[in-house]
């Protein structure tokens, strides 16, 4: 199903139960995390064709970040229940989707590790 959301609206909040993944058809979404000081730090801004909240359809765990609409957005939502139905009705499509989500998740982990390494090197005043 599609969901239209205005700028400033919240798609989901960090630590809330996850139940759907989202594909951005139009607009932009800001993904952020609460820091120890109570500030919200932007991790990334996503745009059309980007996916977020993807782990919810696999584990239904709590959200690891907050997603807010930066520019008016149209989102395609796929719930965990819809994903499970799809796995029965069209296993080939479901497998393709799962492989793409896994690739995306792996890329994000690698990127995050590289950024963390850069931050540590900067803090130590060193470069490779």
What does this structure look like?
The mean pLDDT is about 85. With about 130 residues, this protein is an alpha+beta fold. It starts with a strand and ends with a helix. The chain has 3 helices and 6 strands, in the order E-E-E-E-E-H-E-H-H. The relative contact order is 0.20.
In sequence order, what are the helices and strands, one letter per element? EEEEEHEHH
Beta-strand share of residues: 35-45%
Number of strands: 6
Radius of gyration, in Å, reads 16 Å
SSE-based structural type:
alpha+beta
What integer is the average pLDDT?
Answer: 86
Low-confidence stretches: none
- Please bin the fraction of helical residues: 25-40%
The shape, in one word, is globular
Major sheet attributes: 6 strands, antiparallel
Question: In whole angstroms, how far apart are the ends?
Answer: 48 Å
